[in-house]
Structures are given as structure tokens and as C-alpha cells.
Write a structure and sequence with these properties.
15 strands, alpha/beta, serine acetyltransferase, domain 1, about 40% helix, 2 domains, about 270 residues, UDP N-Acetylglucosamine Acyltransferase, domain 1, five-stranded parallel beta sheet
């Protein structure tokens, strides 16, 4: 029996298969959504093309049209497959950690946190290619469209979940590890006018509560928790929980992977 050329073998893509199955079911259940779902998902042959289309439709403006944005995204995804691999990991992260996410297709269609992170990744790729003005343009459009402001020089890992995603700010020299979860109104910022390494370094598996501010070139250790509303001004050891203004260690992280469990309850010792 003659074997088929390798070029004819389509790579497995479980995330995309799951998305298309859900999309077909959604159209059957709500035909009025058919136009949007076909245009965003079912019209495309693969995840990369669908993501490029979604970002182009969201980031385009009268200043830069959708076709140009689509060409930029297509170029980036062809040059660096890690961009769309990270996007898939982010979808899985949202599905597993956000109780409001019941289908893989929801982030691509509706969730601005996931969409903003993928747009940031596109801008970051442009930044690494030395195309700074175009990266700044995308940063501006992400801020205008999603209410999320991430400098394109910031480095962010994969498996990221940003819940609600309103008023997120991540500065130029910030570093965010893998499998990090954060809620709305989080700031990873500087403390002054220094023009050097001035932003936080967030380890893997960290959970950052709503409204938390982490300021300065400080390290937040792996698998730690930052309570909602805290202002963190000093180093956080791994596997600890910090809370308050300014934040102080109030206990252990409470579990091995706070960012995965999304447990934000501070355990207190009852008085005798």
C-alpha cells in the first residue's frame, strides 16, 4: 500500500477540534449567532487563522484597517508557533479556572482577558523584532478596546488567566511566569521615574487578587497568593500569602497551586 506524503497528514489540534464542535452546537441551539460564529470560528481551517481574524477584527480602526492587522497577525503566527501554542494553553487555563467558562469557544468569542493577552503576545513579538512603533500601536489599541494596558516589552508566560480583565496594568520590565491567575484592577507597576529594571517579577503559579498593586523591581515567589486590595512593596517568598497595605505575610499559600485552585479565602485561626 502506498503511503501518503507527510504534507497531507494534518496535525492533531484537540483545542481547535473542541472549539469547532462547540461552535457547531451553538449555531444549532441559537441560529441568530450563526453569522458571528461562522465568521469567527467555522469559516477558518485552523486555530491560527481564526485567532488572526479575531485579533484583526478587534484591533483594527480607521487608522489601521482589518486587512493590514490580519496580515501582521498571520506573519507573526507563521514565524513563531509559540504564540498560538500559548494561546491554546491560555484557553485551557481559562476553562479550568474560571467557573463562568463552560466551553473552549467562549474565550475566543467573548472574554476580553484572553483576547487582550493574545493581542499583547502579538505586540510583544513585534517588539522583539525591533518594530517598536507597530508594537506601541497595538498596545494602544489593546488599552482602548479591552481596558488592559500591557507594555509590549513585558514578558508573560503561558497558561495565563485574567478574570474580568478590567483596568489591568503591566509595566515595561515586568515578568510574569507560567500558570499565573489574576483578577481585575491588578497593577504590576514601578515606583518612580527610573528608566531601568523597575517592575515586578511574578513567579509561576501565583494568584493575584482583585485590585492588588505590586510595585517596584521585587520578586513574588512561585505559588504564592496576593490578597485582593493589597499593596506589595517588598519581596514575597514562595508559597506564602500576603495581605494588607503595605502587604505582609499572613500565612502559607494554602495549597500547592493557588493559581489553579483560585482559592482566595484567608484562613484564620479561631480564638480559644
Amino acid at each position: 500500500m502506498a503511503s501518503h506524503p507527510k504534507s497531507h497528514i494534518q496535525p492533531l489540534d484537540p483545542v481547535w477540534e473542541r472549539i469547532t464542535e462547540e461552535a457547531e452546537e451553538a449555531v444549532r441551539a441559537e441560529p441568530l449567532m450563526g453569522g458571528l460564529i461562522h465568521k469567527t470560528i467555522l469559516h477558518h481551517k485552523g486555530f491560527d487563522a481564526a485567532l488572526a481574524h479575531r485579533l484583526a477584527s478587534k484591533l483594527s480602526s480607521v487608522e489601521m484597517g482589518e486587512q493590514i492587522m490580519r496580515e501582521i497577525a498571520d506573519e507573526a503566527f507563521a514565524a513563531d508557533p509559540d504564540l498560538t501554542a500559548a494561546a491554546r494553553a491560555d484557553i485551557v487555563a481559562v476553562y479550568e479556572r474560571d467557573p463562568a467558562c463552560h466551553r473552549f469557544m467562549q474565550p475566543m468569542l467573548y472574554f476580553k482577558g484572553w483576547q487582550a493577552i493574545q493581542a499583547y503576545r502579538l505586540g510583544h513579538w513585534l517588539w522583539t523584532q525591533g518594530r517598536h512603533d507597530l508594537a506601541y500601536f497595538i498596545q494602544m489599541r489593546v488599552s482602548e478596546t479591552f481596558g488592559v494596558d500591557i507594555h509590549p516589552n513585558a514578558v508573560i508566560g503561558r497558561g495565563i488567566m485574567i478574570d474580568h480583565a478590567h483596568s489591568i496594568v503591566i509595566g515595561e520590565t515586568a515578568r510574569v511566569g507560567d500558570n499565573v491567575s489574576m483578577l481585575h484592577s491588578v497593577t504590576l507597576g514601578g515606583t518612580g521615574k527610573e528608566d531601568d529594571d523597575r517592575h515586578p517579577k511574578i513567579g509561576d503559579g501565583v494568584l493575584i487578587g482583585a485590585g492588588a498593586k505590586v510595585l517596584g523591581n521585587i520578586r513574588v515567589g512561585n505559588c504564592s497568593r496576593i490578597a485582593a486590595g493589597s499593596v506589595v512593596l517588598s519581596e514575597v517568598p514562595p508559597c506564602k500569602t500576603v495581605a494588607g497595605v503595605p502587604a505582609k505575610i499572613v500565612g502559607e499559600a494554602g495549597c500547592d497551586q493557588p493559581s489553579l485552585s483560585m482559592d482566595q479565602i484567608l484562613q484564620t485561626t479561631p480564638r480559644s
